[in-house]
From TrEMBL:
<feature type="transmembrane region" description="Helical">
    <location>
        <begin position="101"/>
        <end position="120"/>
    </location>
</feature>
<dbReference type="InterPro" id="IPR018383">
    <property type="entry name" value="UPF0324_pro"/>
</dbReference>
<feature type="transmembrane region" description="Helical">
    <location>
        <begin position="77"/>
        <end position="95"/>
    </location>
</feature>
<comment type="similarity">
    <text>Belongs to the UPF0324 family.</text>
</comment>
<feature type="transmembrane region" description="Helical">
    <location>
        <begin position="132"/>
        <end position="153"/>
    </location>
</feature>
<feature type="transmembrane region" description="Helical">
    <location>
        <begin position="309"/>
        <end position="329"/>
    </location>
</feature>
<protein>
    <submittedName>
        <fullName>Putative sulfate exporter family transporter</fullName>
    </submittedName>
</protein>
<dbReference type="Pfam" id="PF03601">
    <property type="entry name" value="Cons_hypoth698"/>
</dbReference>
<feature type="transmembrane region" description="Helical">
    <location>
        <begin position="159"/>
        <end position="179"/>
    </location>
</feature>
<dbReference type="GO" id="GO:0005886">
    <property type="term" value="C:plasma membrane"/>
</dbReference>
<feature type="transmembrane region" description="Helical">
    <location>
        <begin position="282"/>
        <end position="302"/>
    </location>
</feature>
<feature type="transmembrane region" description="Helical">
    <location>
        <begin position="33"/>
        <end position="57"/>
    </location>
</feature>
<feature type="transmembrane region" description="Helical">
    <location>
        <begin position="225"/>
        <end position="242"/>
    </location>
</feature>
<feature type="transmembrane region" description="Helical">
    <location>
        <begin position="191"/>
        <end position="213"/>
    </location>
</feature>
<keyword id="KW-0472">Membrane</keyword>
<keyword id="KW-1133">Transmembrane helix</keyword>
<keyword id="KW-1003">Cell membrane</keyword>
Length: 331
């Protein structure tokens, strides 16, 4: 017995050491793969849909080795990228695109919020979670959820589920919408307007529109950012509806940066020398943003959604997508 214990102890120590080495190898492997894919996203061969797909593959295989880093910089990188895109747009064309989308914006936002309320009660979901998913679908995905969540004083679990629901559907939309647009022979203007209305996050809207064409990108970005401004009245309305007091509404200031860049590009000829470089950098930034988003969609994040919240998200998304497409085709 005396000789058996040391042997078993040494065996346990050896097994623990082997497990530790294996764990370290996995960490270094995930870091290496992450680095190589990130470098690839900087090349001309990468595109937003490809970057998102690579991020998803990374998350489902070796895992994201820097989850805190990607989560922290995703929103900031997207904001700077959107501002950079403004240096490639004309203010007159943007105003015209905004006029086309304003009626769509108002009707779709309030229609989605109302449908979400009814469907949420039918599915017996909590009011906070229902409202978060509805706002994310109606306005601008994760940005709207991040703005409305503190107003609701929503729990971390509710925020996580709402964000995961929106990000999963964003990933699907980024791949599906350009194919659907070509199948229905949508024009550049029609597709830009449709994806700005029907896709949740600004990142996926810009990615899908960029894959469809330059004019689609201009329309989609302008309409989507005008739509994002509705975060402010919806958040204030949320505070009143849910009887919340002493809350702060997060204003999407980067939209003002986009407008400023667009005005400089339109009225200041000197910016035309640096504008193309800034736009190119913005596209690279958007590509990296979508890689970060894909890398954050782990199996655990997807499983955390649950059937009912995901059913609500899918229902709202299908309704707003199909109705807006029908109106655009027959308007």
């Amino acid at each position: 017995m005396k000789s058996t214990l040391p042997l078993s102890g040494r065996a346990a120590s050896a097994a623990a050491a082997a497990t530790h080495v294996s764990s370290n190898q996995k960490v270094w492997l995930s870091r290496l793969v992450f680095g190589l894919l990130l470098v690839f996203c900087l090349t001309p061969w990468a595109s937003p849909p490809v970057a998102l797909a690579l991020g998803l593959v990374l998350a489902q295989t070796v895992g994201n080795p820097f989850p805190a880093f990607t989560k922290q910089y995703t929103a900031k990188l997207l904001q700077f990228s959107v501002i950079g895109l403004g240096f490639g747009m004309n203010a007159y064309s943007a105003v015209q695109a905004g006029r086309q989308g304003i009626l769509f914006t108002v009707c779709s936002i309030f229609g989605t919020l109302l449908l979400g309320y009814v469907a949420g009660r039918w599915l017996k979901l909590g009011r906070h979670l229902t409202h978060l998913i509805s706002c994310g679908t109606a306005i601008c995905g994760g940005s709207a959820i991040a703005a409305v969540g503190p107003v609701l004083r929503a729990k971390d679990e509710e925020m996580s589920v709402a964000l995961a629901t929106v990000f999963v559907l964003n990933a699907i939309a980024l791949f599906a919408f350009p194919a659907i647009g070509h199948a229905f022979s949508l024009t550049q203007q029609q597709f830009g307007l449709w994806c700005a209305i029907a896709i949740h996050d600004t990142s996926s809207v810009v990615g899908a529109a960029a894959a469809y064409g330059k004019d689609a990108l201009e329309v989609a970005t302008t309409v989507k950012l005008a739509r994002a401004l509705w975060i402010i009245p919806v958040a204030l309305g949320t505070a009143i509806l849910f009887k919340q007091q002493d809350v702060k509404v997060k204003i999407p200031w980067f939209i003002l940066g986009f407008i400023g860049a667009m005005l400089l590009n339109t009225y200041l000829p000197a910016t035309h020398y640096v504008g193309p470089w800034l736009v190119k950098s913005a596209h690279i930034g958007l590509t990296i943003t979508l890689f970060f988003i894909g890398a954050g969609l782990s199996v655990r994040a997807i499983k955390s959604v649950g059937p009912k919240p995901f059913a609500l998200g899918v229902l709202l998304w299908l309704v707003i997508s199909s109705v807006s497409l029908y109106v655009i085709l027959h308007a």
